[in-house]
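lol ok so funny story. i was supposed to be doing the assay writeup but got distracted and ended up predicting the structure for this chain instead. priorities right. anyway since i did it might as well share w the group, maybe its usefull for someone
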Amino acid sequence: MREHHLQVVRTARYHTLGDPSKATAIWVVVHGYGQLARFFLNKFKGLEDGLFIAAPEGLSRFYLDDAHQRVGATWMTREDREREIDDHIHYLDLLVQELLRATGPRPVHALGFSQGVATVSRWSIAGHTSLTRLVLWGGSLPPDIDTSAMQRWTRSRVDVVHGMNDDIVPASVAEQTVQRLSSAGIVHQLHQHRAGHALDPLLLGRLLRSE
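and the output, tada:
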């Protein structure tokens, strides 16, 4: 048996908030495991004034329950992971090109939540999009990103966010992320909130608005 790969055309889905003609910046916000983009983007409603916020959806969807009523999406699994990583990096680059056609030249920022942290981290390293801001919320840096690869972040602002009551991602994960960033010489800031494995509205608003 031999394994083969064939590139095919498929349709990706994304949702947006904000008026692109009035936006001073673009935010690409990447959901976590088992979420759908439209529900994830609901957390950003009311924060879109002056911004164009886009939530892409993972290319692989699956049922979350035995009754096949609830659907979620994922960015990758361990099966054929290299190809899935390549696909979502290419996808996010194409998405930004599409967004910039609507806004004109604007700074591009990215926020990854949970599994989305690994997704935006890999994209920011291996993709063609220059990200001004990078928010890593409630997830871990993938092990395949080493110190030399992180040097691409020397011109980006990097924020790490951890929920003090997060029962999925322990504090040690945020500590390891901070340690790896420090070892690479990347300027960063750690933010903590009292919620669990979720986006905290007040902190989210501050991060989206801060320069």
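Strands lie at 14-17, 25-30, 51-56, 60-63, 71-74, 108-113, 133-137, 157-163, 188-193. Helices lie at 37-41, 81-103, 115-126, 171-183, 201-209.
back to the writeup now i swear
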